[in-house]
User: Fold this.
Amino acid sequence: MTSKYEGDSITYHENGNLRSRGAYPKHEGKSYDGKKEGPFYGYEEDGETVWMIVTYKKGGSRAKPDEYPLGTCDVCGEGRRLNWGDSCPRCGAKIDK
Ligand SMILES: [Zn+2]
Assistant:
């Protein structure tokens, strides 16, 4: 049983809103490796706010550092989320609103 991913890759939050969106490259003969390629977007539970962008290059590795449109924790670099309070849930650092 082989699974071949191709085309749009979309996941949803439990509330039905968009959670992530990206695309797998088109199948090109035997060279197809099933790896992600291009930008994948991570959405907050509102289904509209992009909090993370991961860009893959051919072969599935990162084409560049992940991007966090909402910003990151100054201390540990964790990508910020809409549901963060006044401190980073990863390292506990205070967050400037
Ligand atoms: Zn942190």
Notes: The first strand starts at residue 7 and ends at 12. The beta strands are 7-12, 18-24, 38-43, 50-56. The chain has two domains: 7-56, 71-97.
